[in-house]
Specification:
The protein has 13 helices and 8 strands. With about 325 residues, it is an alpha/beta fold. It has an 8-stranded parallel barrel, surrounded by 5 helices. The relative contact order is 0.13.
């Protein structure tokens, strides 16, 4: 099936929600993309309970790839829709360059991605909110069709740029349809609460920290987009379903497990190197490479994290 046939399976009106993996990007020993491996991996995530995946986020090492490589990755990922037509696909398209961000966003939208997740420009950190607003205004007006969805990527520890509630409100007022939501990877519990209290469900908020999913769900979140969904996807899916089924006892028990599982990832950054090292121990996937400057995770750390993960949540896959 060609790309156009795969694109045809996408629903233009469906709401994005649930458990989405911040997917790794499979790389061969040569450093080149493992195109076939990417499709197989995304199908694996779907079978393990993920509602969708974000390509080229932090866990996917997005900023380490050229524009041409990113576009190749976005095209290669579409194969998952042959078997999983309802699997959400989001594209990380943010770069410090306005023009490059616009071109990548146009590509993702033209390929039929369910949404784009856009970092703020992360070099000129003192640009101010007026500059940031004008930057996102240009991205939306020039690259995002009226029926498409843009999510901001809020990750101050990496980008160095914080997005205030007033900034988000101003952007939502200007673009009530195309500014769809936010991936909040700040790890800030107070901000997590404030997002839900301030916007309700008018803004689709996806928490980026697995251990904060229970709190986020109680404060109107649409779901999560996390690194942990690569390692314990079914735990996250079970937590999601327990919440929406109103099973408070089960939800509480699973929430406690998440509090133990996520710190295993945070203890040994970067997540992309850790996940790529752990996958061969937990599954039949090969040891995919990372892109410099990230180096492969050491065997001693992998031994330790493997045992910690099993101790925290048992066998993480079904």
């Amino acid at each position: 099936m060609g790309v156009s046939g795969i694109m045809g399976n996408m629903s233009e009106t469906k709401s994005i929600k649930g458990i989405l993996a911040a997917s790794i990007t499979p790389l061969l020993e040569s450093g080149d993309l493992d195109d076939e491996g990417l499709g197989v991996y995304l199908r694996f995530l779907a079978k393990q309970g993920c509602h969708g995946a974000l390509l080229l986020g932090t866990t996917g090492e997005g900023p380490s790839f050229s524009r041409e490589e990113r576009e190749r990755i976005l095209r290669a990922a579409l194969v998952v829709r042959q078997e999983e037509p309802d699997f959400f696909l989001l594209a990380g398209t943010g770069t410090p360059s306005l023009e490059e961000t616009i071109q990548l966003t146009k590509t993702a939208c033209s390929l039929g991605y369910d949404g784009v997740v856009v970092l703020p420009p992360y070099y000129f950190r003192n640009a101010g909110e007026m500059g940031l607003f004008a930057w996102f205004e240009q991205v939306i007006q020039r690259a995002v069709p009226k029926d498409a969805k843009l999510l901001l990527y809020h990750i101050p520890p990496m980008s160095g740029v914080s997005l205030s509630l007033s900034f988000l409100e101003k952007l939502k007022d200007k673009f009530p349809d195309t500014f769809y939501g936010l991936k909040d990877s700040s790890g800030d519990e107070a901000f997590c609460r404030q997002l839900g209290e301030h916007f309700g469900r008018d803004l689709a908020v996806f928490n980026g920290k697995d251990n904060l999913l229970p709190l986020a769900l109680r404060h109107n979140a649409a779901g999560c987009i996390t690194a942990g969904a690569n390692l314990f996807p079914y735990l996250l899916r079970d937590t999601w379903e327990a919440y929406w089924q109103g099973d408070e006892q089960r939800f509480s028990r699973l929430s406690d497990i998440l509090q133990q599982a996520r710190p295993v990832i945070d203890q040994f950054p970067p997540a992309s190197a850790l996940i790529k090292g752990l996958l061969p121990r937990l599954t039949k996937f090969p040891r995919w490479q990372t892109r410099l400057p990230l180096l492969p995770m050491g065997e001693e750390i992998l031994d330790q994290t493997y045992h910690l993960l099993i101790e925290a949540c048992g066998n993480p896959y079904i």
